[in-house]
Amino acid sequence: MYDSWLRLGFDTVRLGLEAQTVVALRLAKLSLGGTAAQVEAQRMVTEKVEAAAEAAMTLASGGTPERVVRDYRRKVQANARRLSRG
């Protein structure tokens, strides 16, 4: 019982740390301005809305908080990889 809560806690902390990396990378990209910054800003807003809707659907269809965190982490990690490449 405590194992699942502990794992959820650790995964949530990791999500927070990974998200901070993406925020830093996005801020760097946005600070350069131009078309790439505009595209990134739009992507960021769109992703947030889509991710919130997916999380709500996951929970509404009987999914677990663990699943929501896992899905968010996968998306955040993909953003970190994409933004790290340039």
From TrEMBL:
Record's protein name: Signal peptide protein
